[in-house]
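ok so dumb question maybe but i'm new to this and my supervisor (M.) told me to 'just get the structure for Tripartite ATP-independent transporter DctP family solute receptor' and walked off. so i did the thing. is this what she meant?? sequence i used:
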Amino acid sequence: MTIFTRHIHALSVALGACLAGLGGAAAQDTHTLRFNHVLGPNEPFHQGFEQWAERVAERTNGGLTIEVFHSAQLGVEEDMIEQIRQGANFGQNTDAARLGNYVPGIAIVNGPYFVESNEQAFALADSPTMQQWQQELADQHGLKVVCFDWVQGFRNFYTNKEVRTPADLAGLRIRTPPAPIWQESIRALGAEPTAMNFGDVYPGLQQQAIDGAELVYPNITAANLNEVLTHANETKHIMLVNFQVVSSQWFDGLPAEFQTALVEECRTAGQETSKVVAEATEAARQTLRDGGMTIVEDVDLDAFRAAGEKAYETLGLTEAKNQVQSEMAGQQ
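this is what came out, is it supposed to look like this??
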């Protein structure tokens, strides 16, 4: 080998090493989030999550990909949250009730009549106390809240009898998720809470394991629950604010620009989807009425609001509730 060919060979080796290094760096800069939610593919939230994924992929030039899985395809919500805490590249649509298992105060967002409009829900992001709780979730429990601008609307009691006052719920077993604030809220409002996964509600009603459920209107139409329920009682007892969570360890490993894209596009898609949900709620309500479901509108909301305070008292969350509501009032 001549001196010239040796130089060419050396340059080729060096160039190959550089290209290999670039390929390795590119591979390291590609990230995937497998995002799970319990709702069906026809729910507005599913389309919203797909839109979030598209925008993040576009903004990061494919560097961050979100794969959306509906109907709890990746697993039960509580199990998913535990895997997320261990650092897995999963995301989960969840609520303050479940997050309250780790940071009790944040559960107030899921309490009776805590917020009563989309605007109030979006304003929660500016609450110093809410920001403190989110930091605690990330630092001490491995759960990074990406955003919580996803409002699923008012939850009502859906039963096979008319409900106008808390007394009308006496003795009724109402399906609720398995979290303290949810259980105590339904108990305070007059019913017997029964923990059950969302996917089990239809057969649970068929088999009379439960007497009703508290959900939002689009849940009823999407899951055909009007086939096993006759009354929609408009108690509007919880405006359900959804939280999108990922592993804080996984999030911290993302490039800064990917973190920003994930959060900002989450907020934008969430607020847009919340408006779609509000429209879908009215459409679902009309569909159910047209299909023969009885819509009970003249509910004694004052009586339900007063009854709901007991949930905060029982869990020692009255002070936390008052604090955050005071911060929100100061922003107006």
